[in-house]
Design brief:
The protein is built from 9 helices and no strands. By secondary structure, the protein is mostly helical. Helix 1 runs antiparallel to helix 6. The longest helix is centred in the middle third of the chain and has 14 residues.
């Protein structure tokens, strides 16, 4: 359940929520760089370039999602956390990965993550995923966009 909350805070929110860069234009950035505003705060320090959908990676990501995230997240509906079926249309792959990998600092410092915490009133726990596992989850989430 804690892992799911992590994804909720890092990946979710409603479609009306502004993207990180838009939020920064009218709000205090708290000393975050433009990259951090767009891509989050954490171990992913470069833009994650995704090509065509990698079905093998997505399959591995689905297994991780089912084991660590599905207790709090559903694709098409808000559950404990926000629906994640369209999250890759709202957040960059690096942002999603940083939220998964660094939820504590994200909710402490990133304005979008703070907003999501205020909306959902639940902290996302760090599930101890590797960067490769977080990337696999992103690929699974990419596959959910319909």
């Amino acid at each position: 359940m804690a892992a799911v909350l992590l994804v909720v805070l890092g990946c979710g929110g409603d479609k009306s929520a502004p993207p990180p860069a838009a939020a920064a234009s009218g709000a205090e950035t708290g000393g975050l760089t433009p990259f951090e505003m767009e891509n989050g705060i954490g171990p992913v320090k470069e833009v994650v370039v995704v090509g065509p959908l990698n079905h093998e990676m997505a399959e591995a990501g689905e297994k991780i999602f089912q084991g660590k995230c599905s207790a709090c997240h559903k694709m098409g509906e808000k559950y404990v956390g926000p629906a994640l079926g369209q999250v890759t249309t709202r957040r960059t792959p690096a942002y999603i990965m940083n939220m998964i990998l660094n939820p504590q600092e994200m909710v402490e410092r990133h304005p979008i993550a703070k907003q999501l915490l205020a909306e959902h009133m639940t902290f996302m726990a760090n599930q101890g995923l590797t960067q490769d596992e977080a990337r696999q989850v992103v690929e699974y989430l990419r596959e959910q966009v319909k």
